[in-house]
Amino acid sequence: MTVLATAPARTRRSTFFPNLRRPLYPAIKSESVDPVRNPYAPGAGQRPPELAGRDRELQQFEVVLERVARGRPERSMVVTGLRGVGKTVLLNTFKSMAMQRLWGTGKIEARPDQSIRRPVAAALHMAIRELAPRHRAPERIEEFLGVLKAFAMRDPAAAKGTSHWSPGIEVPASRGRADSGDLEIDLTELFVDAASVATDLAVGIALFIDEMQDVQAADVSALCAACHELSQTGGPLIVVGAGLPHLPSVLSASKSYSERLFRYARIDKLDREAADLALILPAREEDVEFTQEALDALYEAADGYPYFVQAYGKVAWDLAPRSPITLDDVKVSAPEAEEELAVGFFGSRYERATPAERDYMHAMAQIGDEPVPTSDVADALGRKPSSLSPARDSLIKKGLIYSAERGLIAFTVPHFGKFLRAQPV
Ligand SMILES: Nc1ncnc2c1ncn2[C@@H]1O[C@H](COP(=O)(O)OP(=O)(O)OP(=O)(O)O)[C@@H](O)[C@H]1O
Ligand SMILES: [Mg+2]
So what's the pLDDT on residue 124? Predict the structure, then answer.
């Protein structure tokens, strides 16, 4: 039996309770894998205890930040990948990196039924609030806030009755800038002004957009145009996105030059080494180890998908009586982890589909786990492809499936086909 993780010399526990440790811990047999100290974190956007296997993306973003700050031409980044692969977590890490460089940052989560105007205004407000205390000329900040307010107030939804957007901007809205009502013009002007405030401080501004595939078509186009304009003037403001694998095609359908605006980083499941590190390193912090066989079994179950790594790791930890966590512990805990995934990860998404959409997905699952031709789905259901378009389109809108390439369709959720095949039709 090989034990991979070795205990560090000094533990946190002994630092905090030097007097308690010796007499009590040997007496409490299950202490070594204490559920209270379980480090694993399955959940949407939950910061993992160890961000494994993303060094390349972090380095790339480091370069982006550095180049933008120096006014060098640079494409911004867009992270894409399947559900639960770690896009939100990576975006949040990028945000922290920008904040460490004293950049102003703001983040939005796009929704299919909402214009980005107000969320962008709120996010840039946050970014400017981060910069304001360090700015020597308060009137520059006030001037920008006036423009920001005018921009936000042009929201079409704001025109009817509830016209007052009150984000805590005390200054009066200015006139004649970023308030034309045309989002493309307004965003461009707003970005240029925000970038100019950041330039005063020799920093930049980063606007993060999660679930970017859900930005409405007209807004995508305006956003790309504004980024394009900004990239030409060299203003230090970048839009960093994250979304499902078809996001690049959403962007290029809107503006053909989008490939030149964004560097796409497709993130995928973790390789064996990274998946092991994601489990071992947090455990080592708590003096807990895994046997090699346990790691083999965990990799086989989780298949390297970050969400699954956290989910299986968490239950194995909770059920293991002592360190090291063994193959038996993993075997005993796997059904419980699967049950939790079936409810929380797969079930919650399945619930969102209508009966017709479920039929469509079951047909997909029966055909196989690779992207499947839409015509095969129609054949399997004995229907005309055109009659299935509504179900397919709304599944895409709900983010459950995506069009991998023309005529092909795939699940956005890893292992979803397997889950569906285990469900009664
Ligand atoms: N690099 C990583 N190493 C270990 N665990 C990770 C890593 N990235 C993400 N995770 C874990 O995976 C889970 C999913 O992460 P996250 O919510 O960021 O995924 P996502 O791609 O945004 O999913 P969705 O498409 O559903 O929004 C979280 O529990 C997180 O802790
Ligand atoms: Mg996410």
Answer: 98
Residue range 32-37: mean pLDDT, rounded: 87
Quick count: other Cβ atoms within 10 Å of Cβ 356? 13
Q: 228 and 96, same structural domain?
A: yes
What is the pTM assigned to this prediction?
A: 0.91
How far apart are the C-alpha atoms of 201 and 109, rounded to whole Å? 27
Out of 89, 398, 400, give the residue to mutate to test ligand 1, the one with the largest number of ligand atoms within 8 Å of its CB. Answer: 89
Task: Report how far apart, in Å, the C-alpha atoms of 309 and of each of 52, 82, 270 are.
Answer: 11, 15, 9
Domain boundary, last residue among 266, 284, 318 = 266
| pLDDT per residue as tens digits for the range 267-308 | 999 999 999 999 999 999 999 999 999 999 999 999 999 999
For residue 73, being part of any structural domain is answered with yes
- Ligand 1 pocket check for 414: Cβ under 6 Å: no
Inside any domain, residue 4: no
Average pLDDT over residues 205-232: 95
Note whether 127 and 112 are same-domain residues: yes
Which SS3 state, helix, strand or coil, does residue 324 take? coil
Residue 300 belongs to some domain of the structure: yes
Phi-psi region of 374 (alpha: psi -120 to 50; beta: other; left: phi over 0): alpha
Q: What residue has token string 């299950």? A: 30
Which range marks the domain in which residue 337 is found? Answer: 270-349
Residue 2 has what pLDDT? 45
Alpha helices of 132-216 — where are they, by DSSP H? Answer: 138-153, 156-159, 183-200
**Residue 42 belongs to some domain of the structure:** no
Verify that 357 and 345 share a domain, yes or no.
no
d(CA 425, CA 422): 9
Query: What is the domain-level CATH number for residue 244?
Result: 3.40.50.300
Q: Are 349 and 405 in contact (CB under 8 A)?
A: no
For the chain, the residue count is 425
pLDDT, one tens digit per residue, over 335-351 is: 999 999 999 999 999 99
Q: Which band of pLDDT confidence, cut at 50, 70 and 90, is reported for residue 390? A: very high
The answer on pLDDT for 13 being more than 50 is no
Q: Is 341 in the pocket of ligand 1 (CB under 6 A)?
A: no
282 lines ligand 1 (CB under 6 A): no
Contact at 8 Å (CB) between 266 and 233? Answer: no
Would you say 151 and 178 are in contact if contact means Cβ atoms under 8 Å apart? yes
Ligand 2 centroid from CA 84, angstroms: 7
Same domain, 243 and 148: yes
